[in-house]
């Protein structure tokens, strides 16, 4: 006697219940894109502030991301997005 877990079928009497996964996915995508834009902008600002000899160094971009706390948020969004793929 093994229990088989499945996703409940769509019930058209309750339309908002079936939208939860879609909304969660869009939420994650929005924050992933926002974070990407912030990191890109941070890297661009770092390039403007650093001298020419230090440009292109991966450590300056990583340092600016760490200073602004974006790395934690990036890991959180990555964790949540990997969680959303296991919901189905």
TrEMBL record:
GO cellular component, one term: mitochondrion
SUPFAM superfamilies attached to this UniProt entry: Cytochrome c oxidase subunit h
Alphabetical keyword list: Mitochondrion
Chief site of localization: mitochondrion
Annotated compartments: Mitochondrion
Xref: Gene3D superfamilies: Cytochrome c oxidase, subunit VIb (1.10.10.140)
Protein name, per record: (rape) hypothetical protein
Species lineage: Eukaryota, Viridiplantae, Streptophyta, Embryophyta, Tracheophyta
């Amino acid at each position: 006697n093994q229990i088989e877990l499945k996703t409940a079928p769509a019930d058209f009497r309750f339309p908002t219940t079936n939208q939860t996964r879609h909304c969660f996915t869009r939420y994650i995508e929005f924050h992933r894109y926002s974070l990407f834009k912030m990191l890109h902008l941070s890297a661009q600002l770092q390039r403007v502030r650093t001298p020419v000899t230090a440009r292109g160094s991966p450590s300056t971009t990583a340092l600016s991301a760490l200073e602004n706390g974006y790395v934690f948020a990036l890991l959180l969004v990555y964790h949540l997005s990997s969680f959303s793929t296991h919901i189905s």
